[in-house]
Fold each of these.
Amino acid sequence: MRTLLALTVMLLAWAGFAATGLLLRDHPRPDAGAELLRVRLPIPVQLAYSAGDPFLAANLNVFRSLMVEARVTEQETYRVQGQLQADAAFFNPRHEDNYYVAAAILPWNGQVAAAQTVLLKAAQSREWDMWPAFYYAFNAMYFEHDMNKAGHWAEVAAERHPRNAAALRDMAAKWYERGDDPAIALNILVAMFEQSKDENFRALLAARIVRLQGLQKLREAAGEYRQRQGRVPSRLEDLIGHAGLEALPEDPLQLGYLLSAEGQPQLADHVKKQDSQ
């Protein structure tokens, strides 16, 4: 009886949602472009819309995330994408595409917390898979600057991949000692680029790679500037002419770069760019 009642309520909820969609179909909508995300439904509604199937609900969220084009640089889209992928991880924490896309896209667009939510759930549930643990460790090191967390999860990845355990443990040791290093990030993105077969996804990764290469050149110039001038740079233009830097690197995503208070070049993410305007 309870099962029948629950099924009836679920069907009524789904019917109500479908009817609402039909009513709104002819209403004018903002011309935001098909590649932008604006809507994230509450989890119970997502489940009802998927006829009570959590795996279908997860797949729908991941599919929506994959539809974001590589040229998108709009903050709200990535905020909604982060929510959608976190919801997908709630429905199906083992979803491989979900954690892979989250690792490659979300943290590089100001959605570190969402990416880490997806990756942690995947790492905890996919006990045979080294990659979500490894990406979680990398984000902990590179974005969160939590070296203890990074080292721990790199060691977890090592336990799951005996063949590369020595290299992973060596990396864990280095992560305990090192902080923000674009060279490490470049290695990760290049590996993901080479493994991916999706052209849109590869285009997005290629843009991230070029962006990090620009950051690497800026940091080399900043290091030489400090040695020559005995002080830190006050603006990015000061770095031109140092370490072979002839001009400021162009960012394919048009977000640009920033100088930290210590004169260290940094990637400008969507949040920082918005706050500075």
Note: Residues 33-126 form one domain.
Amino acid sequence: MRGLSLYIMREMLAPISFIALALTGVAWLTQSLRFVDEVVRGMPATSFLKITMLLLPSVLGMTLVLALFFGTIYAFHRLYAESELLVMWACGWSTGGLGRPALTLAALFCLVLYGLGLWLSPWGLRSVKDLQHEFQGSFLSVALQEGRFNSVGDGLTVYVRERLANGELAGLLVHDQSDPESPVTFMAERGALVDTKDGPRLLLVKGNRQVFGSDGRTPQFLFFDRNLVDISDRSEESDDLWFGAKERYLGELFAAPDGDRDLRKQGRLIAEGHHRLAFPLYALTLTLIAMTGVLSGEYDRRRRAWRLIVTGACGVGVLLAAMGFTYLAASDARAIPLIYANVAIPALVAAWLMRRNYLRRHASADLAAGLAR
């Protein structure tokens, strides 16, 4: 019996590994494309590779769940198509006995997913944010291309006529419209990028500051010898002092709000915490759905494809509902129980269907044996 269980697990691991590698490769490539511009701007290749590797734990959760689900369907379908399941049933193996190796593997995946979601994923995303902040100043130093209007940060445009050999910038124009009601324009003969404790700044030398008067039409000029302009990314998403929901550990998600921004995002943080607790359990739920789709019903090759399509659609639908309920719970705390119900109810229904099918098949076998006598 133990040998047969190991055989089923080996049959599952091959397709699961292939699907996981394929999906992870696609997800890794997609995440990497976000940083191609930074490589063009001068990010070292080693830093780019480090960032993309740190992003892997955040995508592995979904890819492993999908790989387990579709790998289970493929493995049991192959056993079914080659009549190996019929032999196992004839040898006295119940549906529960056939599903035990799959559920054991799903339980191991569940533990891995908890490790990813509760520790590795937030650690990786926090490390990426730290690296981005570390290289922000150096990115800007090569991002300001001469002869072009360079978009920097939120509502900030910088024009550089020429980059000098000593690193200085000549012929500068800076237009700041982060506040649409009072845009500001700076012009300077020369300047340079400097690093300060508050982030990168653009030092302007011998220039003027232009704003419009109260009538919105008359420009007002203020001439200066030296002036510092903040050109760091001032968008809310880039604030390195505040970690988003996916960048926080579980305890931080349920902690009391620390500041106004935490208070505004509290619903999102709590919803993410409940999602982290529930998501690894989908390894068990989707495995039950996969086994139900393959092992339930009569032995009928003609309707097999349709049953597999329905099984796949059910599994994907459950995962989509999980994301939908998490999004809903972020704005309405009353939806939080739906996050857990979406895990439990499909699993219970799948287990009930498998149990009913086993009892029906067992009753049919007893009736056939009775008629034979």
Note: The two ends are 30 Å apart (CA to CA).
Amino acid sequence: MLTPEYLHALQNLPLAARRAAEGLLHGAHLSRRKGAGMEFSQYRPYQPGDDLRRLDWRLAARSDRYYLRESEVDTSLVVHLVLDATASMNHQDDNGLSKLHYGRLLCAALAYVATQQGDAVSLTILHPGGLRHLPPRADARQLSRLYHALETTEAAGQFPDSATLAPLTARRQPALTICVSDLYEASGEIERLLTRLRAASGEVLLLHLMARNELDFTFKGAITFEDLETGQQLQLDAGQQRRAWQQHLQQWLRDTAQRARSHGFDYHQLSTAEPLTGALREFLRRRARG
């Protein structure tokens, strides 16, 4: 299993994405939709504006009616990647890997897998300076665009306001939205955005990213915690507070998962210490349910 530290150390996002996906795509099923591919599926009546090259002229000569040959192709859906790039994603695990580093690797690998499956991929990076959005495309250069956007992203500030987020949900387009976030929010703003995205696109896979030192509370002695988004500080003794911290965290994780599922999201918790394989398999399972 390739560790996230190893993939990050490659300092080559395209290579890391390919390596992370190795072995997962073998035998993966491609969903199918009607289109202009090679395998014949059915006829349908001609409509103004249709491509005349797809007309069946022999059938037209026999029936005096115009029909198009519909076929099946292997492009099946739009995958919309949403990466949280607010300041809390700068939190580093004991391995030196930040949540943003892991999120970049994960989004790159998801984009690679989706592209290999024939899907159109889009990317939205959320930060207070405004949305960075690449619309969905399935052309050969889209991966390069996505990799560049991810490589040049830095985490900063708080979650964008509702006016900044409005363009994301203004247009309804069927898609599988995959959000990578630590879900640290002030007043439910991430939950509201994902609820609107689900209404606009249909499906949401929420990948909740946590650092292992948060989950296991590996801190020792007197320590000062700082909220990376507000600057608020909290001083405590790690040994005295470990049990209470872990109890509070586990309750928050249970509540978060329950709320996400009550909104109809597919929820999956990740650790920055885990290989990317689990999240990629979750995507492929969700895609296969289609």
Note: Residues 249 and 271 are 14 Å apart (CA to CA).
Amino acid sequence: MNSEVLTPVLDWLDLAGVAVFALSGALVAARERQTIVTMAFFALLTGVGGGTLRDMLIGAPVFWIHDPWVAAICLGVAFAAWFTPMKWWQARLIDFADGLGLTAYAVLGASKAMSYGVPPIPAILMGVITGCAGGIFRDVVAGRPSIIMRPELYVTAAALSATLGVLGEVIGLPREIVWIGATSAGFFLRAAAIRWRWSLPAFSG
């Protein structure tokens, strides 16, 4: 299948994920006392990084090049962050918002991959890449430890959402219910990991 199968629900998940990741990117630049141009660059890189990599891998048109809203949202979020005090953006609040963007983007990435004929297991991986890659790009460019190196669950939450999204589509459940349920499940796992520092066992060998 060469055409995208997106609905208003998935479109809203897409824009919500872009906005949240763009904000996290802008705030990283803000904490480093960078210029508005650098903040806008970090917002765009973080907001579209995962989706860009996904589209290149599945052979789809790069989504933000053909959608007039995506880049505008990223730049708008950067300007909003520039004109607000840093104290408004508490670290824990941003972590929870990032968790919502992570899981929403994972569902979106997996569903879009399925719509392009990608088999279920690679589609799940496309969901994980969509959710995680933008934050990885942000951290690498900023020269700080990657978010995936934190001890609490992060990639696991994206994988849970992507897996539930793909399973729901495979067995034919209503898509809107699957997308909302899969996003919520991954977000609750990520929120619990933030709140109680849940993590998987580390390699000890």
Note: The chain has one domain: 8-196.
